[in-house]
Amino acid sequence: MHHDDFFESLNAQFQDALPFVAYRTPNENQVNAVFQHDDTLYETKDLSESGFVFAPFDDASKMVLMPLAASDLECCDAFEGTASEQVNSELVSTSNQKIAYIETIKKAISAIAQTDLKKVVLSRPDYVTKDNLEVFEVFKRLLATYKTAFVYCWYHPKIGLWLGATPETLLKIEGQRMSTMALAGTQVYKGTTEVSWGTKEAQEQQFVTDYIVSNLDAEVEHVSTSERRTVRAGGLLHLQTQISARLGKDYSGLLHIVRALHPTPAVCGLPKAEAKAFILEHEGYNREYYSGFMGELHFKKRQTRNTNRRNVENNVYATVKTVSNLYVNLRCMQVLPSKIALYVGGGITKDSNPEAEWEETVSKTSTMKKVLF
């Protein structure tokens, strides 16, 4: 479908107040969309269905599903938009916000000193006043600006409108193979990925990798981890380790793997249960779908072994694989009446400097604000 028609279909669905999600996976050009036929709010309890899932940070809340059985799929080829200009939007963050956030960071640092807590991720909403947001223009700018991210625009009339560009994969399953990543550490991108990382970041990265591997143990076999590498996400750099495995003989379904991984140390902390309890008690607002996860659930994808189209007889060996691609909902925004909530956070450890952590959240929101103006 040509991209003008594609965006017209999206707009028509939005005007009719019907649920949809449009998204593009990292390093791809094709944008996909799921158009739900009615405005029913479907939920998945065990992630066994086929559809697009949108799940909150706190697993006590509903995981929303747009089921393939009740939807149409569309795609638009090779969308090339223009990236947002590097404008310096005035960064107005009220001093009250700063005082409150720094206060919570100090509480976290002292909890880390006194308990088993090693790391806790603290976040905050940052509001931008804006009427009549051109939703699809912002989506196009996100697509053009964040080529290596999972970029999405998700809407349900009974929940609301969310957009984002996340660098973090929660998990990918193709047939029997699964992969995930450990992501930690942040520094500003200054033209090169050849940078050095401090002990704090390297340690944090190792924590996260070990934690994921030990948590997956019961469900998978043949686990392997890659070398640590520096990856770029927009204007920021992170440390990343790839982790892959095969679903084991005792694999008991996707929900168990998701429970082992979500919420990840990158959005929650370590140990997970203690960090989550600290967040729910002290953060002071409801994250809702920020730092939850979303993506394709049990999509059937046809894969041919032979990429040379002329060699027809080998195409008989095409296999249909069941694929799930889930991403953590980071770098996202929620469109509210007359304002937009941008969500941002950082990992607090015993060595954190509260003022520097605040500054890091400011630089993260400034990269997101650029697509709004």
Automatic annotation (TrEMBL):
Enzyme class: isomerase
Gene Ontology molecular functions: isochorismate synthase activity
Organism: Formosa agariphila (strain DSM 15362 / KCTC 12365 / LMG 23005 / KMM 3901 / M-2Alg 35-1)
Pfam families per the UniProt record, alphabetical: Chorismate_bind
Domain Chorismate-utilising enzyme C-terminal: 100-364
Documented EC number(s): 5.4.4.2
Alphabetized UniProt keyword annotations: Isomerase
Name assigned to this protein: Isochorismate synthase
